[in-house]
Specification:
The protein is an alpha/beta fold. A hairpin with a 2-residue loop joins strand 3 and strand 4.
Protein backbone atom coordinates (compact mmCIF):
# COMPACT_ATOMS: atom_id res chain seq x y z
CA UNK A 1 0.00 0.00 0.00
CA UNK A 2 1.28 3.45 -0.93
CA UNK A 3 -0.23 6.47 0.79
CA UNK A 4 -0.51 9.53 -1.42
CA UNK A 5 -1.92 12.28 0.80
CA UNK A 6 -3.37 12.90 4.22
CA UNK A 7 -6.30 15.27 4.56
CA UNK A 8 -8.06 16.04 7.77
CA UNK A 9 -11.86 16.05 7.84
CA UNK A 10 -13.62 17.27 10.96
CA UNK A 11 -17.31 17.34 11.80
CA UNK A 12 -18.81 20.61 12.99
CA UNK A 13 -22.23 21.77 14.11
CA UNK A 14 -22.09 25.10 12.27
CA UNK A 15 -20.20 25.00 8.99
CA UNK A 16 -20.79 28.67 8.10
CA UNK A 17 -19.28 29.75 11.43
CA UNK A 18 -16.33 27.40 10.88
CA UNK A 19 -15.65 28.75 7.39
CA UNK A 20 -15.77 32.31 8.74
CA UNK A 21 -13.37 31.49 11.61
CA UNK A 22 -10.76 29.87 9.38
CA UNK A 23 -10.98 32.42 6.56
CA UNK A 24 -11.21 35.60 8.65
CA UNK A 25 -8.83 34.66 11.48
CA UNK A 26 -6.39 32.16 9.98
CA UNK A 27 -6.24 33.31 6.37
CA UNK A 28 -7.62 30.13 4.79
CA UNK A 29 -9.58 30.23 1.53
CA UNK A 30 -12.73 28.21 0.96
CA UNK A 31 -11.70 26.35 -2.19
CA UNK A 32 -14.72 24.03 -2.46
CA UNK A 33 -18.17 23.64 -0.93
CA UNK A 34 -20.98 21.13 -1.42
CA UNK A 35 -23.68 21.47 -2.49
CA UNK A 36 -22.93 25.22 -2.65
CA UNK A 37 -21.25 27.97 -0.68
CA UNK A 38 -24.57 29.46 0.55
CA UNK A 39 -25.65 26.33 2.43
CA UNK A 40 -22.73 23.90 2.52
CA UNK A 41 -22.75 20.52 4.18
CA UNK A 42 -19.08 20.02 3.32
CA UNK A 43 -16.25 22.47 2.64
CA UNK A 44 -12.54 22.36 1.88
CA UNK A 45 -10.32 25.19 3.13
CA UNK A 46 -6.75 25.80 1.99
CA UNK A 47 -3.78 27.91 2.97
CA UNK A 48 -0.12 27.55 2.02
CA UNK A 49 -0.68 24.05 0.64
CA UNK A 50 -2.48 22.85 3.78
CA UNK A 51 -6.03 21.63 3.23
CA UNK A 52 -8.64 21.05 5.91
CA UNK A 53 -12.06 19.63 5.22
CA UNK A 54 -15.13 20.15 7.39
CA UNK A 55 -18.57 18.60 7.23
CA UNK A 56 -21.78 18.97 9.14
CA UNK A 57 -22.35 16.17 11.58
CA UNK A 58 -23.64 13.01 9.97
CA UNK A 59 -27.24 12.30 11.02
CA UNK A 60 -26.24 8.71 11.78
CA UNK A 61 -23.28 9.66 13.99
CA UNK A 62 -23.52 8.36 17.55
CA UNK A 63 -21.56 11.38 18.80
CA UNK A 64 -23.73 14.19 20.15
CA UNK A 65 -21.14 16.93 19.62
CA UNK A 66 -18.08 16.74 17.38
CA UNK A 67 -14.92 16.21 19.42
CA UNK A 68 -11.26 15.42 18.91
CA UNK A 69 -8.92 14.33 21.68
CA UNK A 70 -5.81 15.42 19.77
CA UNK A 71 -4.81 18.62 18.04
CA UNK A 72 -4.09 20.07 14.63
CA UNK A 73 -0.42 21.07 14.77
CA UNK A 74 0.80 23.72 12.35
CA UNK A 75 4.53 24.28 11.94
CA UNK A 76 5.18 27.96 11.26
CA UNK A 77 8.23 29.94 10.25
CA UNK A 78 7.80 32.51 13.02
CA UNK A 79 5.74 31.50 16.07
CA UNK A 80 6.02 34.93 17.66
CA UNK A 81 4.52 36.58 14.58
CA UNK A 82 1.73 33.97 14.45
CA UNK A 83 1.03 34.55 18.15
CA UNK A 84 0.70 38.31 17.63
CA UNK A 85 -1.72 37.73 14.74
CA UNK A 86 -3.93 35.20 16.54
CA UNK A 87 -3.84 35.90 20.28
CA UNK A 88 -6.84 38.26 20.20
CA UNK A 89 -8.88 36.26 17.68
CA UNK A 90 -9.50 33.00 19.53
CA UNK A 91 -9.66 31.39 22.94
CA UNK A 92 -6.12 30.83 24.19
CA UNK A 93 -5.33 27.31 25.37
CA UNK A 94 -1.77 28.21 26.35
CA UNK A 95 0.32 31.30 25.49
CA UNK A 96 3.52 31.34 23.50
CA UNK A 97 6.38 29.62 25.29
CA UNK A 98 9.76 28.02 24.59
CA UNK A 99 9.69 24.35 25.55
CA UNK A 100 12.53 22.06 26.65
CA UNK A 101 11.94 19.86 23.62
CA UNK A 102 13.17 22.65 21.35
CA UNK A 103 9.93 24.26 20.16
CA UNK A 104 8.42 27.71 20.58
CA UNK A 105 4.67 27.20 20.45
CA UNK A 106 1.22 28.24 21.57
CA UNK A 107 -2.28 26.87 21.23
CA UNK A 108 -5.75 28.26 20.61
CA UNK A 109 -9.23 26.77 20.30
CA UNK A 110 -11.23 27.24 17.13
CA UNK A 111 -14.94 28.06 17.13
CA UNK A 112 -15.75 24.34 17.51
CA UNK A 113 -13.42 23.78 20.44
CA UNK A 114 -10.78 22.01 18.35
CA UNK A 115 -7.23 22.53 19.60
CA UNK A 116 -4.93 24.28 17.12
CA UNK A 117 -1.23 24.35 18.02
CA UNK A 118 1.36 26.50 16.25
CA UNK A 119 5.05 25.74 16.65
CA UNK A 120 8.47 26.77 15.42
CA UNK A 121 11.63 24.75 15.93
CA UNK A 122 14.16 26.70 17.97
CA UNK A 123 17.66 27.14 16.59
CA UNK A 124 19.88 24.51 18.16
CA UNK A 125 16.77 22.87 19.61
CA UNK A 126 17.16 24.78 22.88
CA UNK A 127 14.86 27.40 24.43
CA UNK A 128 16.13 30.96 24.41
CA UNK A 129 16.95 32.44 27.80
Amino acid sequence: MRLLHQKTMLEVNNLAETIAFYTENLGFTCCAAFPDVESPTWAALERDGIELMFSVRNAHSPVENPTMTGALYFTVKNATEAWELLKDKARIEYPIEDFDYGMREFAIRDCNGYLLQFGQELEGGEPEM
